[in-house]
Design goal:
The chain is of the alpha/beta class. It folds into 2 domains: about 220 residues, Rossmann fold (3-Layer(aba) Sandwich), CATH 3.40.50; about 70 residues, Alpha-Beta Plaits. About 35% of the residues lie in helices and about 25% in strands. The chain is built from 11 helices and 14 strands. It has a 6-stranded mixed sheet with strand order 6-7-8-3-9-10, sandwiched between helices. It has a 4-stranded antiparallel sheet with strand order 2-1-4-5. The protein has a 4-stranded antiparallel sheet with strand order 12-13-11-14, with no helix packed on it. The chain is elongated, with a radius of gyration of 24 Å.
Length: about 325
């Protein structure tokens, strides 16, 4: 994979003494959708702000498509598009005017064909002559995306892009993000909607207390840290788990009416056949069974509960 964004030993300490970021090391690959997850105050927005030239780092190095964000800040910044959390744009300007103006800020020559393409992709074409103040919140967010895409960036940062928007717009934006990735744009997404990351991301990074604690392929992350369970609904309730079934580490729930078996993710096979045979030998009959798989949200919540780094490392073995 070719790296388009490289972050090395990046730290940020504010004048108050607050350490927002500590020794961040991260490479983003060209043409991927990378989701950065973390609780409020974890450092997501600070990290994006440094890369985009809004906040100065205390130490470390960041290069964007080969350009240092400080030494070559104009070239670096021209490769980046940013959709911030806040909806800030010219209230009395038209949609066409504000998007075209954003393109000019990067020294790009006028390109009505590109602006038209962006507005149509965002379902804004019929609003092109409307003043921003007349638009709904969802439409204003679309305008912000159009502004971020106006200068044809190679990297697009989406900081909580669907916060406060309706389900239809979220799905429209998911489709747009995929189409941008397919056209070669690298997408870096921060979101509180974990299903959004699960739906779209190729890789996941987790930040906590200003430190990157995990980066992995989404599928690998869910395989390594996910939990798969088999739930058996029993014909007759059990008061306790028979001694001969202790090795399976079963959990008795719902007043003894259900048994839960958690698959061993490190085992070569799940051991389901052996379990069912053992249940039969113990004369335990079940009327139904179902399997469940951890979502990315489950994994994220569990990661945020971790307090000791060795525990996380052990989980990844």
């Amino acid at each position: 994979m070719q790296t388009i964004l490289s972050i090395s030993h990046l730290s940020k300490i504010y004048a108050s003494g607050f350490r927002a970021l500590h020794d961040i090391n991260l490479d983003i690959w060209r043409g991927e959708i990378f989701a950065l997850l973390g609780p409020n105050g974890a450092g997501k927005t600070t990290l994006i702000s440094i890369i985009c030239g809004i906040v100065n780092p205390t130490s470390g190095c960041v290069t964007v498509d080969g350009y240092d964000i400080i030494a070559d800040y104009r070239a670096a910044r021209s490769t980046i598009g940013l959709l911030p959390q806040e909806l800030t744009t010219d209230t009395f300007e038209s949609v066409w005017g504000t998007v075209s103006f954003s393109r000019g800020l990067f020294g790009k020559p006028a390109n009505p064909v590109h602006i038209e393409k962006v507005l149509k992709a965002l379902s804004l074409w019929d609003k092109k002559d409307n003043e921003i103040r007349t638009l709904s919140g969802g439409m204003k967010r679309r305008v912000m995306i159009a502004k971020a895409l106006s200068h044809e960036p190679r990297i697009l940062f989406l900081d909580e892009p669907t916060a406060g928007v309706d389900v239809e717009l979220r799905r429209d934006m998911w489709r747009l993000v995929r189409s941008l990735r397919d056209s070669g744009v690298t997408i870096i997404l921060t979101t509180h909607y974990i299903d959004e990351a699960e739906e779209m991301a190729d890789r996941i990074g987790v930040i906590r207390n200003g430190e990157i604690i995990l980066v992995d392929q989404k599928t690998e992350l869910m395989r390594k840290l996910g939990k798969k369970q088999l739930t058996l609904q029993l014909y007759a309730p059990l008061h306790c788990i028979p001694q001969k079934l202790i090795a399976y580490r079963l959990e008795l729930v719902r007043g003894g009416n259900e048994l839960i078996y958690t698959y061993d993710k490190r085992a070569e096979h799940a051991g389901i056949i052996e379990l069912l045979r053992a249940l039969d030998d113990a004369n335990i009959a079940f009327k139904d069974l179902q399997t469940t798989q951890s979502s990315l949200e489950d994994i994220f919540v569990n990661l945020m509960k971790e307090r000791r780094e060795p525990s996380l490392q052990e989980a990844l073995r």
